[in-house]
């Protein structure tokens, strides 16, 4: 991945706009099976990243990702903050070591495993991991960005049929079935926004 | 104000400190009041509740500040309510320097009962390990 400062600043702007556009929807999803704050929390996190996008974009990519992770942790709050924060911080730490497509796929796998440990969750628990795992599989296959985005969307949709085993939604037991997981939904939105940029600009 | 040291501990206190983290500032403050009633000011104590905007939630900076406020060289036991309170507390602890982080324990115990029992144990000068073990006996 060779992202320059312009790419990084543009990606931050895209992610922030995507979350802003879908904030109410994310909160509505969270209201159905949780506490209804996911949209507001994500907006707060992305706004904080956006506010320092120029400083972040000027950093080397690994340090930039680590910084984004930290800003998300400090600002999202809620259960999603530590999960997104861990993902970005681990990606940044791993990417500092090597810079090939294979290394990126391995780093992504490692970072997703760290998210799973942080959330004490695994596949099928109705969390953002249910988007991250299939996305990682597409990255390993070196799929085109459009295909990865479609995979993320359908993976988020597939959480509707799952019964939550983590977080507040798990308190609802079988009543959590029939609602898309808000974390999976925001994860798919962000993945698709990032993939859309790669499709258009192919920075690498 | 959604976070603070419940009351300054006596500076000579070598007892384990207690931190209470709830999504609700009212719950956190109420639990801290119950702890204080039990042990007076011989245990360092701080609480935090609510997100950065004062709504229900938890946030890392508030938790870090509470750990700082209840700091004791003997260590700090942290009590949390629901999921995000626990993972955000983990993030706060990991951001401490490693020597300090090793002296903070996030307890698997009910928030109110755990904090009160832990504080009673801490007030007798018990180690962090003993304080945590006593509180975790309450875990279902
Ligand atoms: Mg929520």
UniProtKB/TrEMBL annotation, chain A:
Q: Which UniProt keywords apply?
A: Kinase, Transferase
State the superkingdom.
Bacteria
**A Gene Ontology molecular-function term?**
glycerone kinase activity
Q: Which residues form the DhaL domain?
A: 6-196
- A biological process term (GO) from this entry: glycerol catabolic process
Keyword hit for rRNA processing:
no
- List GO terms (cellular component aspect): cytosol
Q: Which PROSITE patterns match?
A: DHAL
Against SUPFAM superfamilies, the record matches this protein to: DhaL-like (SSF101473)
Task: Name the chain's protein.
Answer: Dihydroxyacetone kinase subunit L
What organism is recorded for this protein? Ancylobacter defluvii
From TrEMBL, chain B:
* Keyword Kinase found: yes
Q: Which Pfam families does the record match to this protein?
A: EIIA-man
Presence of keyword Repeat: no
- EC number(s) on record? 2.7.1.121
Top-level taxon of origin: Bacteria
* GO CC annotation: membrane
According to the UniProt entry, where is the signal peptide?
Answer: none
Q: Which keywords belong to this entry?
A: Kinase, Transferase
**In what residue span(s) does the PTS EIIA type-4 domain sit?**
15-140
Which is one GO molecular function term here?
phosphoenolpyruvate-glycerone phosphotransferase activity
InterPro entries in UniProt: DhaM, DhaM_N, PTS_EIIA_man-typ, PTS_EIIA_man-typ_sf
Q: What class of enzyme is it?
A: transferase
Q: Quote the catalytic activity from the record.
A: dihydroxyacetone + phosphoenolpyruvate = dihydroxyacetone phosphate + pyruvate
Q: What processes in GO biological process is this protein linked to?
A: glycerol catabolic process; phosphoenolpyruvate-dependent sugar phosphotransferase system
Its subunit composition reads:
Homodimer. The dihydroxyacetone kinase complex is composed of a homodimer of DhaM, a homodimer of DhaK and the subunit DhaL.
What role does this protein play?
Component of the dihydroxyacetone kinase complex, which is responsible for the phosphoenolpyruvate (PEP)-dependent phosphorylation of dihydroxyacetone. DhaM serves as the phosphoryl donor. Is phosphorylated by phosphoenolpyruvate in an EI- and HPr-dependent reaction, and a phosphorelay system on histidine residues finally leads to phosphoryl transfer to DhaL and dihydroxyacetone.
PANTHER family membership:
PEP-DEPENDENT DIHYDROXYACETONE KINASE, PHOSPHORYL DONOR SUBUNIT DHAM (PTHR38594)
Q: What is this protein called?
A: phosphoenolpyruvate--glycerone phosphotransferase
Its organism's taxonomic lineage begins at: Bacteria, Pseudomonadati, Pseudomonadota, Alphaproteobacteria, Hyphomicrobiales
